[in-house]
Amino acid sequence: MAEQLAPVCVVCSTTLEGPVGVLFHLFGIRRSGRNPNVCNRCDAHMQEGRIIEMSVLFADLASFTEMTHRLGAERSYQVVDSFFKMANGVLVKHDAFIDKYIGDAVMAIFNAPIRNTEHAAAAAAAAVDILEGIKTLRQELKIDLHARVGVASGYARVGRVGSEERKDYTAIGDVVNLASRLEGQAFPGEVLVDGTVYACIAEDYPQVPLESLSIRGFDEPIAAYRIIEEKQAQRPARATDEKDPTRSRQAVGLGAVLFAILGAPCAATTILGPLSVALGLGAAFGSLGPIMHTLDSTPVRIPLQIFAVLGAVINLYVIWYANRQRHKMAREASGALPELTRWERNKVRLVAGLSVFSLLAVAYEMYAHVVIEKMSLF
């Protein structure tokens, strides 16, 4: 069955399908490859440079090296591809953001950029569902497959890393290292979670014994719990199902359309994009058109003034709308308003200045043609 996707970005509410979605696609706005329920603008910022609370999941195929030797490269590739497709579907369902694929392993983070107050429970549920998906793959591929999953919760810094030629977005911190180490110590068919994650799912998985594990790179023993494939509980439906974004379709507002077209590549941190600057310059030029005698005829002057007014009003509206969205996202995240860079602030001032200048220039031109000319007749 085909995967049902959200009609709008679950982070910034940009429309991702339908006629408006096609229009946005022409301006480079599309679904993210890391979670198709997020647009690629929100994919890009991922709360750049902030330290945030999150849950991290690592999952891989057990005995992959042995399997590759036994099955050969081509067959092993098919198995890994099937595993990644299954895991991707599970992770997207639980609002995960796929950070990367590493060999036969997948790393995913929860609570960035898609906010989820129950991110630990969502990560654990995704881990168990991956084990369930492995059962189906066994039957389809007729191979004795098993997966190992590690899940940890904590704080990490998100941002871009890499060279000038290529940068990628990732999370860096102890929680990432811990999740990776837990996955490495899980047995085939197990989910190994840390104490923080287990505290969120203890009611679903009671009487799981506590283990104290020595983890490489960590000075103190780590409290961990093993959720075994054959002993999974009947889990109740969680908040992920209740807030399924595919169940409701939001109306597309004028502000969302204008901002998606004129806004910057990042909806949450940058206010205006290059197209908005170009529109501001065009509006300013249109308002100055009547100064040039060759453009001061009525058939030319009126359209230029209409364009100047529309361009200025649109830009000022987009600035207002973007600021409102930034404040809304900050309130929902219970965090500080993302700071703009000096370049971004100067760009906003330039566009706002051009827009106000255009409106004043058109107002003066109308005054000159209507009031002053009438007074000259007396």
- Structural class per helix/strand content? alpha+beta
| Secondary-structure element order, N to C | HHEHHEEHEEHEHEEHHHHH
Give start-end ranges of low-pLDDT stretches: 233-250
Major sheet: 8 strands, mixed
Q: Can you name the CATH architecture of the largest domain?
A: 2-Layer Sandwich
Summed up, the domain count is: 2
Question: By CATH's scheme, which homologous superfamily of the largest domain applies?
Answer: Nucleotide cyclase, GGDEF domain
Q: Give the integer mean of the pLDDT values.
A: 77
Q: How would you sum up the global shape?
A: elongated
Question: How is the CATH topology of the largest domain named?
Answer: Alpha-Beta Plaits
Helix content: 40-55%
**How large a portion of the residues is in β-strands, by DSSP E?**
15-25%
Radius of gyration: 27 Å
Give the CA-CA distance, first to last residue: 80 Å
The tally of helices reads: 12
Please identify the top-level CATH class of the largest domain: Alpha Beta
